[in-house]
């Protein structure tokens, strides 16, 4: 049976520095049926980032013009900068049965749930400890000391949203954490409501 299914929106959220960017990259490398949703942002580009690959870097005028014209599924303000998820990419992928991974915060996750709860699989990644989170943020060293401090302060507030997620994982072992995410994706793909052609198949059986 050629069992067609709808794509799903897989959200990975965590406080900055809990390792979710590395996890996203590894998952994408290992599964060609998953694409990354590239957000737009008004935040300045970090040295290691590439425009149109890591983010679409827009100035405020362009961002708000796009927002006004319904270009985004959701937008949020994080650390004084604007972020948004482009709509067209998501709609095309879901219809074709491709999965999309999102590196967005809890605000974006709530808005994706209002957009389409049944297509959403949400995963929250926790750091193993506050010390570890602080070290990872410092090691990254791409943001100013002030930004690191702000992000540390915000981390606890972000973690308080863990309970709104379908799955919660502790990233104390990258390989294990990745395996767990892959297992989640594996079973979520098999869920009955995602399998279009199973209805027709069963009708023919009975
Ligand atoms: P960063 O500037 O460190 O890349 O991201 C800061 C925060 O913004 C992270 O928590 C990230 O998940 C979130 N973020 C990135 N893109 C989006 C987006 O399109 N929508 C929302 N709501 N949050 C986003």
Fold and architecture overview:
The chain contains eight helices and nine strands. Strand 5 and strand 6 form a beta hairpin. The model has no long low-confidence stretch (mean pLDDT 91). The strands form two sheets. It has a five-stranded parallel sheet, with helices on both faces. The chain has a four-stranded mixed sheet with strand order 4-3-6-5. The chain has 206 residues and is of the alpha/beta class. Helix 5 packs antiparallel against helix 6. The protein is globular and about 65 Å long. It has a domain of 136 residues: 3-Layer(aba) Sandwich (Rossmann fold). The structure holds guanosine-5'-monophosphate. Guanosine-5'-monophosphate (5GP) binds next to strand 5, strand 6 and helix 4.
- The chain-level structural class is alpha/beta
Mean pLDDT: 91
What would CATH call the class of the domain at 9-37 and 99-205?
Answer: Alpha Beta
CATH H-level name of the domain at 9-37 and 99-205... which superfamily? Answer: P-loop containing nucleotide triphosphate hydrolases
CATH fold-level topology of the domain at 9-37 and 99-205: Rossmann fold
Low-confidence region ranges = none
Q: Radius of gyration over alpha carbons? A: 18 Å
């Amino acid at each position: 049976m050629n069992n067609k299914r709808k794509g799903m929106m897989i959200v990975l959220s965590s406080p900055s520095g809990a390792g979710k960017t590395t996890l996203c990259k590894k998952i994408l490398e290992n599964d060609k049926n998953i694409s990354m949703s590239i957000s737009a942002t008004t935040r300045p580009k970090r040295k290691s980032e590439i425009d149109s690959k890591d983010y679409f870097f827009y100035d405020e005028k362009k961002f708000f013009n796009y927002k006004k014209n319904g270009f985004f599924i959701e937008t949020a303000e994080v650390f004084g900068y604007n972020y948004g998820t482009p709509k067209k990419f998501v709609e095309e992928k879901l219809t074709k049965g491709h999965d999309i991974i999102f590196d967005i915060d809890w605000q974006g996750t709530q808005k994706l749930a209002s957009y389409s709860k049944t297509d959403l699989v949400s995963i929250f990644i926790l750091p193993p400890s506050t010390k570890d989170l602080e070290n990872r943020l410092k090691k990254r060293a791409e943001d100013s000391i002030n930004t690191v401090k702000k992000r540390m302060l915000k981390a606890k507030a972000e973690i308080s949203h863990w309970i709104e997620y379908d799955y919660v994982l502790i990233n104390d072992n990258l390989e294990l954490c990745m395996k767990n995410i892959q297992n989640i994706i594996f079973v979520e793909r098999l869920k009955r409501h995602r399998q279009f052609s199973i209805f027709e198949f069963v009708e023919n059986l009975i």
